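Risk register update: the risk that structure generation would not scale has been downgraded. Supporting records follow, first protein first.
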Amino acid sequence: MYILTEGTEVQFIWGQWAVPVVISEIGGDWVSLRYPLEEPIGPGIYVDLQVQYEFFRMTYYYFTLNMPRQFNDILFLRRAASRTYVERRQAWRVVANEPVRVEYGENRISFEATLLDISSTGAYFAVEHLLPLTNPLRIYLPMNGRVYIFNGIIVRKIPPNPRLGVPLRIGVRFVNNPIELRNLLVHFLWSRIREIYRDQFKDLYPG
């Protein structure tokens, strides 16, 4: 049987990155390793661990449980059931229900939207007006008592259901934001997630 063991060298694969790492510890459904990148990462991000055996290559699917504070800090991963499960969601999402200001187009047309949920990679909003897909957005997100501007693009539109009172919703992916801003968002989400899912994380990542 081919299983991961402590000391196994694997390829850590996330998005465009594929870098070698060594498994530090391993439990029943989790592993830990030294985070090999400087790009900020938070909990709930799906990654692959790929092992090259003598005659074949095997890929294991995991999602992150914590937020490394810096490069080479300990990262905890929990096993995901399958690629289908992995692709179901890209990140833990924090549920919200608060108004935010959004601008679109070169003339920065402004309107109010309701933030429904948010992750490190994007957010869902309820809006009153249909927006063109081609226009980039500027989203004014309140975090820790301040407002920060994020760039995004619309990747999904969900039609309204007037009979059920459900408004038009849009899915937005964050793009072209500086690493300092992305890191700030990850820190903010991690603090919220630790509050919401404390019982699920405290055994693996106390403190």
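Supporting record for the second protein:
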Amino acid sequence: MFEGKGDPRVIAVMLVVLSALWSSLLVWGASFLGYVAYTPMNVATVTLIVMAVTYVLVLR
């Protein structure tokens, strides 16, 4: 695997942006099926969960 010396801030920003996009899609799908409402709070909550899971899996 590539072991680059990149700026960790770039990776952190990428993690936030990609997690937010993925979470937005997940919450939209759940709201389409009638499980939850599509609100900024729900998207933010799922984003934090996705970020935490990604962080744990990457550092494992």
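The CA atoms of residues 17 and 51 lie 10 Å apart. On this basis the risk owner (M.S.) recommends closing the item.
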